[in-house]
Amino acid sequence: MRTCPVSSRRLVSIRPGWPEKCNKSHTLRQAREYLSSATGYIDDWLSRSPHTALRSVTATRTAQLMTAHSRLTYLQRVGLLSVLGEEERLAVLRAARVARFQRRKPIFHPGDEASAVYLLESGVVKLSVESPEGREAILGFQHPGDLFGELAVIDDGPHDHLAEAYEDCTIWIIPRTDFLNLMREFPALGQEVITLLGLRVRIYRTRVREILHQSAHSRVASTLLHLADRNGVEDADGVVIPLRLSQRDIANLVGLTRETVNFILKDLRERNLIETQGRSIRLKNPAVLQHAIR
What we know:
- This protein is of the alpha+beta class.
- It folds into three domains: 11-75; 95-209, Jelly Rolls; 214-292, Winged helix-like DNA-binding domain superfamily/Winged helix DNA-binding domain (Arc Repressor Mutant, subunit A, Orthogonal Bundle), CATH 1.10.10.
- 46% of the residues lie in helices and 19% in strands.
- Strands 1-8-3-6 form a four-stranded antiparallel beta sheet. Strands 2-7-4-5 form a four-stranded antiparallel beta sheet. Strands 9-10-12-11 form a four-stranded antiparallel beta sheet.
- α1 (28-48) runs antiparallel to α2 and α4 (176-185) packs across α5 (187-213).
- The longest helix has 27 residues, at 187-213.
- 24% of the residues are buried.
């Protein structure tokens, strides 16, 4: 059997996941060179193999190598981790376990041990709490590149809220102890987490202030503006909120009943401030909507 010129091992010894040769002394460039060379070798060898079963196994391992390569590239675009150098991003990749959750599947429940932090690669995650009467209050939505469950790094108590896949999600799960070690080893990461915690506190304080002091119309309009500002997609007719929000979801975001939200959305449509189609919402003129809530 031919051997891989990069690893100098038999082909069957190339294991899934991150290559064994990529230890802490390797740079991102060296890691990419390994992945490129190993993948090219496997493709060449695979094309010569007459064995269907072995071809399937080898193709799977090729995909795993390419997945590692694509995730290295993804790390460079994540806001929280963009401050890290090449070796630091490799360390995060080694510490993480990637998991997929289908829509509406829980990621963790209230009372679960806070044993990890979570980095969202794709999809949308909903964070919420439930009152003793069973009324849901939505704390917010997490989007690709967001870190959540971050209180695990400062508090070893259990989770006090629910995290649920609002859409199909791919999530990096990093054990709490590994993430704490990364923060100690790379102070820039620790500073980013502190900044994130401060931002979340300000967001929640703003939400409480709006619920206590703003009218129902202003609360709905403010929430729509926030969602559009965070992840809105501009088109020729305004800004589309890329979340398929039900009226119940909006009600649980702003502390109102679904019937009240229905009335407010109808009023905003009649004033030509928003446009709705099913669960899709377009802000036709965000600046005018912002002025209307003052």
